[in-house]
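Example 3.2
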Amino acid sequence: KEGFPRHEVAELKRQFEFFSVDGTGVDSGVRVLPPENLSDALVQVFGLQVTPFTRLMGEKLMSGQGLQKSSFDKGGGEPESLRFAEFLIFARKIRQEVYAKTSEEHGGGKGDEFKKRDTDGSGGVSEKELRAILIEKKYTPLRTVLHEIFDDVYTGDWDPDSSELDFDEFFDFMLVFEQRDGFTKQEVEDLRKVYERFDEDNSGEVSAMECAELFRYVGYRVTLEDLRDYVSEVDENGSGQLDFREFLRLMRLFREKELKKMQAVYDQAADSDGLVQMNYLERMLMALGHDPPYDLPPGMQHEETVDFDGLVTVADSCRSAYVAKERKKAGFSDVEIENFKEIFWKFDLNKNGEIDNMELQGILKEFGWEPKSREQQQELMEKLDIARQLAREAGVEDVGQDGSPNVKFWSFIQLARMLRTQQDKDEERQLRELQAQLQFTEGEVEDFRQVFRSWVRRSANLEGKGEKRNENAPETLSREMLRRLVRSLGISISPANGEKLDAKIQELDDENRLETAELGFAGFLQLMRWILDTDFAGIAAATATSPKAGSPPGSAAFPQAE
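Structure, written as tokens:
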């Protein structure tokens, strides 16, 4: 077992089975782990923080430097597939690597760095000192999370005022904390169940599109474009999709945003002692979007004050009602729901709260969602019953009759989300076809997407829209912003080249406009391909000294605008 407790061996076995294949040759009849899967398997066990170590270990194994000094040496210097016992050896080595790195960073209890962490010079790390370390690592330390791990790694009963961790206990604490990415054990298990619900093909990865549906399910409202940015931020293995550990890190980013909002609300009401009078609690919860009534945990019902952890506990207990409300809205904002209501009532001619098939066709035409063939009409009828079921699951009682062509409002909202998602999927498929046609790699397209979105934000700021920009409106760049973007690469545009650029922008504009031309991301990609292929205005020479070798021109030549 290489020193691992039984529950860790079980998790190691589970990940080994997922990433392994049937062996051949001398390994015939047993499952083996291909060397290229070693890093991903270990990351799923220990968390993203071990990625630098697992990548190096995987590279060595691929080059035939794996177990040559072990009793499992197969010789020949060839890449080795691993049996489970060999996989356990690598898992132990990873833990040793992390321990050595932690010892180096914190001095193993002896060096200056660990003494610096031990601010009171007691020789151990207290809860207060530990909280400071976690805040440095961009985590919000919560009492429930800390004390759950103390129960696992600390011998005896933990006293927040007097107990301390020695270095080995500190190492165990940090390993577990980062393995769970700051969540409780139950929260990790709940998130895994949600993740597996949306990993329909059991591939161990979900796309940004699937992640958008997943996020709506857990009550987070986020646009597909913003989600692509988040996916790019946490996609450690560069697959363009999220495995569970990357998904967990993404949920941590959203959780930290949520906690930051709670902290801001709490700080406004806190007194000089850092506490909030209980009579302010309802006001804080309303500011966080939670509707009354509020159920207080038994231990808080007779308290006069509440601390930040207490606010988080109550807000989290209200979250199920908040999630139900968001599911009912199918992830649409309040503004979008009001817009849907106006259109629904406009077409509901007899004002009975239900529209028939002809009225539904009129609404769908408003959004460009109307069926264009008999087959699509049949699919729409099938979607109606699915929409009713989704509305029921969201707590709506009157969803209309199954099999009926008539539609109630909240069932229509679920239908609208399904049609919006299908539209997004169609656009994603078209973009991938365009990517292949333009011969851009996935990494190049992602770099260009970041550049494009940074200039969309810059354009909104210049126009004074900023935060008021409709986040569901198509993202476009005007002709003027496109010219600015090209000039930002360090090239000058002569009158003749300006005319060529304008002509190309006009050609790519959906309505063949010039002065008011706008390009979405697909048009922007086509413009970039044209600029590269024609070496527009000597752009190749202008970007040859770019510090980001091999990146698309411009992605490193100017800062991302916020």
